[in-house]
Design goal:
By secondary structure, the protein is mainly beta. The chain is built from three helices and 13 strands.
């Protein structure tokens, strides 16, 4: 909190100075800065689109000024992670050590069998597995590929089979109003800043949370309902709750009662350091906020 208050004070003082000097751009700069303070847990549905082609933001090896390195802040041990999972106690889907996770979560990138992958806007080949983190079995999304220029780790993009989570209970799919995911990011390699400082932190975690219902003709729409933007610059791990509400976009963004493939999808923009992310759990709620159970994946 001390870091946030310091940033707000600095912005206020800067705006005041610019105003006194007659700088007409000060208000727009202040507004732009304030938008960066939005958090994942206060999300609402955004624009619905039918294409998966989205331009990623430019990457930088410079950590934000508010990188959490001020005096008094210390890295948190991974053993503290479980208590940060917002929905874990009442989630719809839990993973187990023997969950056949590769049949439920698939990468968009296609493994060619030769160590290469089918490129699509710098999309990464990923490996999906179950790994226990601080005592909790999680779906691990391991990033394996770099961008073509070799400067960044490429975009991991995965789809979660909703028809398999709700197999035998397909009538509950159309009741889903809200989707939540507890997600953990974990550094694999060091982040190197422009001045050469190395930090074992996951850094930026930015991307899109998406629904892909069946279109009834063997295809799926792409509905980008929440563009998240998080980061961790102190500890080697970060924890976030992603929330989207397809029910607000009634129509093609919502799931339907069908055995056809339909998905919840997540993509993370490329970053300069290697970091994997984990899906700890999934929660589906109806319009009244009641949790919709997936009996085969109960705790």
């Amino acid at each position: 909190m001390k870091k946030v208050f310091a940033s707000i004070l600095a912005l206020t003082m800067t705006a005041a100075m610019l105003t006194s000097c007659g700088d007409s751009d000060s208000s727009s700069k202040s507004e732009s800065s304030s938008k960066k303070e939005e958090t994942t847990t206060t999300t609402t549905a955004e624009t619905t689109t039918t294409t998966a082609e989205t331009e990623a933001p430019a990457e930088s090896s410079e950590a934000p000024a508010e990188s959490g390195t001020e005096e008094g802040e210390a890295p948190k041990d991974i053993s503290e992670m479980p208590e940060t999972l917002a929905s874990y106690e009442n989630a719809s889907v839990y993973w187990k050590a023997d969950t056949d996770i590769t049949s439920i979560i698939e990468p968009f990138a296609e493994d060619t069998g030769s160590g290469a992958y089918v490129p699509n806007t710098d999309e990464s080949e990923v490996a999906v597995s179950i790994e226990e983190v601080a005592g909790i079995p999680m779906a691990k999304i391991e990033v394996l590929s770099k961008t073509e220029d070799g400067e960044n780790w490429a975009i991991p993009k995965i789809k979660i089979h909703m028809e398999k989570l709700f197999e035998g209970h397909e009538e509950d799919l159309e009741k889903i109003f809200t989707v939540k995911a507890d997600v953990v990011t974990k550094a694999v390699g060091n982040f190197v800043s422009d001045d050469g400082t190395e930090m074992l932190v996951p850094g930026n975690f930015m991307g899109a949370f998406v629904t892909q219902p069946t279109d009834g003709n063997g295809g799926n729409s792409w509905n980008d309902l929440y563009d998240f933007g998080e980061s961790e610059w102190v500890s080697e791990w970060g924890s976030y709750e992603l929330t989207m509400r397809p029910g607000i976009k009634a129509g093609k963004a919502t799931f339907v009662n069908s055995t056809d493939p339909q998905f919840v999808s997540i993509m993370r923009w490329s970053i300069p350091n290697q970091a994997d992310f984990y899906i700890a759990d999934l929660t589906f709620e109806d319009e009244d906020g009641n949790v919709i159970e997936c009996p085969a994946f109960a705790k």
